[in-house]
Amino acid sequence: MKTIVVNDTNVFIDLFSVGLLGEFFSLPWEIHTTDFVMLELLREGQHAAVARYKETG
Predict the structure, then answer these.
(1) Which residue, 4, 47, 9, is CA-closest to 24?
(2) Which of 18, 30, 33, 55 could be 37's S-S partner, Cβ–Cβ 3.0 to 4.6 Å?
(3) H-only helix segments in 4-45
(4) Does 56 score more than 80 pLDDT?
(5) Is residue 8 a contact partner of residue 36, using CB atoms and an 8 Å limit?
(6) 13-37 per-position pLDDT tens digit
């Protein structure tokens, strides 16, 4: 399994804005990010959407 590190918040912001966040997390990759990236998800729903995938693994 490949490991992807997301170190730019805009990746999650863009995927969220076009409705592809679920598809991104369903790819056969292990995705890692930092707490700093998570703290930059400020708009309504962004943080909760990414955090949901974090909690479910």
Answers:
(1) 4
(2) 33
(3) 9-17, 21-26, 35-39
(4) no
(5) no
(6) 999 999 999 999 999 999 999 999 9
